[in-house]
Amino acid sequence: MSSLTITLVRGDITEQHTDVIVNAANSSLLGGGGVDGAIHRRGGPEILEDCRKLRASQFGRGLPTGKAVATTAGKLHAQWVVHTVGPVFSREEDRSQLLASCYRESLRVAGELGARTVAFPAISTGIYGWPMDDGARIAVETVRDAQTSVEEVRFVLFDEQAYAAFAARVR
Ligand code: APR
User: Is 5-170 a domain of CATH 3.30.980.10?
Assistant: First the structure.
């Protein structure tokens, strides 16, 4: 059982050279802003074509929150993009398990594909409003506890605050 290495990178997830790049998508799978917008912009139309095929087949009603599905990575330096839908942060309801599921399910899909290296963004901590420190805690704990054949998980953090939040958890 190969042990999993967790690495942190300060930068743009669309520039990573990994087998899988994980997209912080929405349930429509038809694109958006943030990571989603960057991946579709840099990856090109093939990714959206694959997403449209998924919407026309097994995900007719969209990808549920916490689930993950793979498409081509188009022009990105990856073999696949794994799209996952994070929960929108709520003060009334604890959606932590749904956020954990995004990491767990993305690793499961990546492992099934035979991926060895996986780049994750800080899911839900942007437009979906999840506090960064708690998002980092859930991300690192879930990945650490995962039973996976993936060998490296690379958290790609877009700014210093995100990087510091993850670094405090990975120590
Ligand atoms: N590379 C790495 N991280 C990035 C990048 C990038 N190119 N762009 C943004 N981020 C960071 C943000 O700073 C944030 O910390 O990724 C984290 C997630 O932010 P979002 O992309 O806004 O994703 P999320 O909060 O999960 O919201 C998803 O936003 O883009 C739409 O279609 C998407 O509706 C969905 C929602």
Answer: no
